[in-house]
Write a structure and sequence with these properties.
Keywords: Membrane, Transmembrane, Transmembrane helix. By secondary structure, this protein is mainly α. It has one domain. Helix content is 84%, strand content 0%. Helix 1 packs antiparallel against helix 2 and helix 2 runs antiparallel to helix 3. The chain is elongated, with a radius of gyration of 15 Å. The mean pLDDT is 88.
Length: 86
């Protein structure tokens, strides 16, 4: 199975969820509590992290440089943890 298709599927799904999160408050007067808000915002970030993990696995199999993807993953994970804690 190619990780390429799954990886870009994660990215597209994260983009769709992000767009949905933008348009739901614009379409109606909805107010949600902080837990639901943080959960909905965290899901696209987790999907992007998952896509980057698949990119790392694919690049390691091809013996290519993975430093950029690892650093992006570390940065996104730190941002996600700080967002959830705050």
């Amino acid at each position: 199975m190619k990780f390429y298709n799954v990886r870009y599927g994660f990215y597209i799904l994260a983009l769709l969820i992000t767009v949905l999160l933008i348009f739901i408050p614009l379409m109606g007067d909805y107010s949600v509590n902080a837990f639901v808000s943080k959960t909905f915002i965290s899901v696209p970030i987790v999907l992007i992290i998952g896509g980057k993990i698949l990119a790392i696995l694919e690049k390691r199999r091809e013996k290519r440089n993975v430093v950029k993807d690892v650093s992006i993953n570390i940065g996104l994970t730190i941002a996600l943890v700080l967002f959830i804690i705050n």
